[in-house]
Design a protein that fits this description.
By secondary structure, the chain is α+β, with helices and mostly antiparallel strands. Strand 19, helix 9 and strand 20 form a beta-alpha-beta unit. The longest helix is centred in the C-terminal third of the chain and has 31 residues. The structure holds zinc ion (ZN). Zinc ion binds next to helix 11 and helix 12.
Length: 1059
């Protein structure tokens, strides 16, 4: 899954879960209130006790039925607002939150009848009827089967039956056949994906059926005696009599009803407007990590893999459905004229979180190109999967880019991993309302529209890059994640770290001129290190038990740090070892689950047979990687040279932004190059290779690093920053270092200075080279990230004027060479750099840029058709709109708001417009925007709220206004969005990370104290925000003076008052 990122991927937005339930209730649904549900449950249990003897004869959940209402598990009852973190889940032990392993599923027969625009036979739309038959294997005698279900109404006819006899030798396929014939299932199917295998077993099967009855265990067949929701565990417990027995296969039949929710998780509803401005509904899914249980009852843990045989009902003439596999057959539904079943082929064994389906109108259409022609000759013998991109008709033209690169990336991965994509088709669908960036559901990948669709008329170069990156990420998951899955969510980083690492290889393969490999450093590693330098970070591999903890680790640590560790491994073990190891790992664990140690094991084996690998003797990959994945943070390597004898002392210590002491140590692969060696081109490809390992020891000596008396030559460590650590040098070496690997040096130096490890004057001196003609996108991106911090902490000081002048001076040369206008011959990197340069010029109030932007904007406002005729070039729209709103008033803001409301069918444009609204310097307009963002069903799509808030922090003033806003309204915000940890995290980030003074800190601490317990799902986020603010305040006390006088010396201007 793709979540947040510095580019086009954004964090999740949920979840008006409880609100939508309440709404539904009002329209007469069968959901009941929590208290009532619990009361009914208690009554039901009591009545079951009273009629104990009768229970034996009941084979259903009817004990739970009262009148016409069924017990339901509503979201509100799962975690009510105001429930402190400790209250909600701590009383349930970690073990209890996991499903018992007494039974495991092997096959799901799932039928869904959604009513999107029509009412169901009971007169309700936005609901669905479902039925699932699950084949389960019993491993330990038990009379209780626990299964996940959340916000579903489980029907009365829950049944358990024996499906195959003990030791019958029945394969799971034959067991499934038995199921189809012995349960009252109106759909009998010939499983498509396994068609050949099945037809071979059919005759055996007939004979075996007799065996089922003759060898069935003595006594009564199992009957369901109770079916009790365990709401806080998001489970149902089905009791049976007599007990299920090990070695036997059973079928579990569960009818249920569900709601197509407004929240963006589970099976939910999304909408868009067609050509005639009519609202059109569709229903997609988002299951990762723990939302499959909200769509159908299932064993919702990644290691409980099974096959899925899915059928979905729809209107025949104007609707379509999609799922993981191709449709096997479509047939009319008896008694429902005009409606049909789409029966899908059976999936391979897979995890529940990767199941997906979409119900949509027929104007949700595919690209024409099936991708069948993409494969290169060496792949001729492999089966070509059908490759298509789906989008609403109005936007399908913009799917061209994704549909052209997708198959090529898929082919590249097939080669890289040494095995072709295993499913018969691959569809990517652009969903109008989507919480995350994208989701890798096997065979049916779903995306936020802006991450899949690229319209050269309204999307910028960075949007295009975003599409390439996100597509490459999700496709990598088809192997890493889907084929081999982590055993439990603590190893999520393996999935996400690998997909993030691979997205750079995949996008580089299709866009070789984009320097994607170089961008890894500034897109992933440096942002990860910035956050991983906080004390409140967490290890890559971390214990998670409950759903909110699981959601919380979809963060920079799992994605960006995980990817950086894989990159470090690639450079230490060699690419060949990593690749061969991966192929072996995927083959060994395919259709199954693995943990990080399984990967370390195969990699160690590969290093032993490789002549190239540089692992220290008698050290395993696991020993090395445990220091990186089980410990939090990362080291700074300090290099102190002895210039007389040519040696150096290397020492390691944990890097934290508050420079606190720690005795954590790592296995550090150390690469370096001396000035003389740099001229030797022969070895250039091996420069990232470790020449020394620091083996979990605090210090080591390197002799003969340079020739003696090398006073005037430099040594550079951690080449291309392929190691996930920073390097500090003695002051002399810092002074000698040239502008090679500029992005790395800048980021290390400025962060070491920020932490008080290196003098700020040394670090700031390094930024001076930028003014001498640096025009590469990567070092500028690293510089801007660091200037952003200085901008933030200096914003309210007298030194800000000098800072502005210094930045403007620094930007002069690159602005001169790039110009304001794009040329037809420029590189992708130049196209990406220009908007950033212009945005910084605008931020620094450069009069020329402000004038230019205002003129362009003015020209646009005079257009008679501003929604279709826009004189502002796509790539600079962000900076033009923002500058106009920032320097303008209500008129400009209203104009942008109107354009935003009219841009619903141009997702990228709509995104740029919304973010520009936050540039206003008028408090009441910012408050209006915040107010609009939290209005349910209002003008701002729920999926965009997160991103809007996240953006608040980067603007003048907005963070402070946003903080005051949440300070006043926290209770109601928490009540409404408290269950959405992603959104809560972004709201807190937007409101706090733009603050920097002691005064702010007092208020934020007070806010934290007053609302403790009301951050439940975003507890780590608020701690990180608080720590960040403390560091900024601490920075003022420690570094302000040095920085202010440095800026003054390098800028001229007025004497700055020291604070
Ligand atoms: Zn992912």
């Amino acid at each position: 899954m793709t979540t947040s990122g510095s580019r086009a991927e954004f964090l999740a937005v949920d979840a008006l879960g409880s609100t939508s339930d309440i709404k539904y209730d009002r329209t007469g649904g069968w959901f009941v209130s929590t208290r009532r549900a619990l009361l009914l449950g208690l009554l039901a249990i009591a009545s079951m006790v009273l009629v104990g003897v009768l229970v034996h004869y009941l084979d259903t959940c009817r004990g739970l039925r009262t009148g016409t209402e069924l017990i339901s598990v509503t979201e509100a009852s799962v975690a009510t607002p105001n429930t402190p973190k400790d209250g909600a889940e701590s009383s349930i032990s970690a073990a209890e939150l996991r499903l018992p392993k007494d039974v495991t599923p092997s096959h799901y027969r799932l039928r869904l009848e959604p009513y999107l625009e029509d009412a169901d036979p009971d007169g309700k739309n936005f609901t669905y009827n479902g039925h699932v038959s699950i084949t389960i294997q019993c491993h330990r005698t038990t009379n209780r089967v626990s299964i996940h279900a959340k916000n579903l109404d489980i029907g009365k006819d829950v049944k358990v039956a024996v499906a195959a006899p003990r030791n019958s030798g029945a394969t799971s396929e034959t067991a499934v056949r038995t199921l189809a014939n012995t349960t009252p299932n109106p759909i009998t199917t010939t499983p498509g994906g396994l068609r050949r295998k099945r037809s071979l077993t059919r005759n055996h099967h007939r004979r075996r059926q007799r065996t089922v009855t003759s060898t069935a265990p003595p006594g009564l067949p199992p009957r369901v005696t109770g079916c009790v929701p365990e709401v806080r565990k998001e489970m149902y417990v089905i009791s049976v009599e007599p007990s299920l027995e090990p070695g036997l296969t059973y079928t579990l039949d569960i009818p249920f009803k569900g709601l197509l929710k407004e929240s963006l998780y589970g099976f939910y509803r999304s909408s868009y407007k067609d050509e005639n401005d009519t609202k059109i509904w569709m229903a997609p899914t988002q299951f990762e990590p723990t939302h499959a249980r909200e769509a159908f009852p299932c064993f919702d843990e990644p290691a409980m893999k099974a096959r899925f045989e899915i059928s979905i009902a729809r209107r025949r003439d104007d609707m379509i459905t999609l799922s993981n596999m191709p449709v096997r057959v479509t047939e009319p539904i008896e008694g429902q004229p005009g409606r049909v079943w789409d029966h899908y082929e059976i999936t391979p064994k897979m995890s529940t979180y990767l199941v997906a389906f979409i119900v949509a109108r027929s104007d949700f259409i595919p690209t024409n190109d099936t991708g069948a022609t993409y494969l290169n000759p060496r792949s001729r013998n492999t089966t070509v999967p059908e490759f298509r991109v789906y989008a609403r008709r109005q936007l399908i033209q913009t799917a061209q880019y994704a549909s052209s690169i997708g198959p090529r990336v898929l082919d590249f991965y097939g080669e890289y991993f040494g095995m072709p994509y295993p499913l018969p088709k691959l569809h990517m669908a652009a969903i109008p309302d989507f919480s995350l960036g994208a989701m890798e559901n096997w065979g049916l990948l779903t995306y936020r529209e802006t991450n899949l669709l690229f319209d050269s008329k309204s999307s910028s170069m960075s949007s295009k890059e975003g599409v390439a990156i996100v597509v490459a990420h999700e496709l990598a998951h088809q192997w890493f994640g889907n084929l081999v899955t982590m055993k439990w969510w603590n190893d999520l980083w393996l999935n996400e770290g690998f997909a993030t690492y691979m997205e750079y290889l995949g996008s580089d393969h299709v866009e070789p001129s984009w320097a994607m490999i170089d961008k890894f450093l500034v897109y992933e590693q440096q942002p990860a290190m910035a956050l991983d330098g906080l004390r409140s970070t967490h290890p890559v591999s971390t214990t998670v038990d409950n759903p909110s903890q699981i959601s919380e680790i979809f963060d920079y640590v799992s994605y960006s740090k995980g990817a950086s560790l894989i990159r470090m491994l690639n450079n230490s073990l060699t690419e060949e070892v990593l690749r061969k190891g991966l192929t072996r790992y995927l083959n060994k664990w395919k259709y199954s689950n693995a943990e990080e140690n399984d990967l370390w094991q195969v990699l160690t084996e590969e290093t032993l047979v490789s002549r190239e690998s540089s692992l220290p003797d008698n050290v395993t990959v696991r020993q090395v990687m445990d220091t990186w994945t089980l410990q939090d943070g990362y080291p700074v390597l300090s290099v102190t040279r002895d210039y007389d004898d040519g040696s150096a002392n290397l020492s390691q210590t944990r890097f934290t932004l508050d420079n606190s002491s720690s005795d954590t140590t790592w296995y550090i692969p150390v690469s370096y190059v001396t000035q003389n060696e740099m001229n030797d081109a022969a070895n250039s490809s091996r420069r990232t290779f470790p020449r020394i390992w620091l083996k979990k020891e605090p210090t080591t000596e390197v002799h003969d690093l340079t020739k003696n008396n090398s006073y005037d030559t430099w040594v550079l460590f951690n080449i291309y920053a392929t190691g996930y650590y920073r390097v500090n040098y003695d002051t002399r070496n810092w002074g000698l270092l040239p502008a090679v690997t500029r992005a790395q040096l800048l980021d290390d130096a400025l962060n070491l200075a920020r932490a008080g490890i290196l003098g700020y004057d040394v670090a700031l001196n390094m930024t001076q080279y930028l003014a001498t003609g640096e025009n590469h996108y990567v070092p500028w991106t690293a510089a801007f990230e660091n200037f952003k911090f200085l901008d933030l902490v200096l914003r309210q000081t007298t030194a800000y004027g000098c800072f502005q002048k210094y930045i403007l001076k620094t930007l002069a040369a690159v602005t001169e060479s790039l110009g304001f206008e794009a040329t037809t011959t420029e590189t992708q990197l130049q196209s990406l750099l220009r908007p950033d340069i212009l945005a910084w010029l605008s931020k620094m109030d450069d009069p020329e840029v402000v004038r230019w932007a205002k003129n362009l904007f003015q020209l646009w406002t005079t257009s008679s058709k501003p929604d279709t005729e826009n004189p502002v070039r796509v790539d600079v729209r962000g900076v033009v709109y923002c500058t106009a709103v920032k320097t303008g008033g209500t008129q400009e803001w209203d104009f942008v708001l109107k354009r935003y409301l009219a841009a619903a069918n141009r997702p990228s444009e709509s995104d740029v417009l919304l973010m520009s609204l936050a540039c206003s310097r008028q408090e009441w307009l910012i408050v209006t925007l915040l107010e609009k963002s939290l209005e349910s069903g209002g003008e701002i799509r729920l999926q965009d709220v997160s991103r809007l808030w996240d953006n608040m922090a980067s603007r003048d003033l907005t963070s402070r206004v946003a903080f005051r806003y949440i300070q006043n309204k926290w209770s109601s915000i928490f009540e409404k969005y408290g269950k959405d940890e992603y959104l809560m995290g972004d709201i807190l980030h937007g409101a706090i990370s733009g603050l920097s003074t002691e005064f702010d800190l007092t208020y934020v601490r007070e806010f934290y104290r007053a609302n403790k317990g009301k951050f439940s799902f975003a507890e780590r986020k608020i701690e990180q925000e608080l720590e960040g603010l403390e560091l900024r305040v601490g920075w003022h006390n420690r570094s302000y003076g040095t920085v202010a006088s440095w800026l003054q010396d390098h800028q001229g201007g007025q004497k700055v008052k020291r604070e």
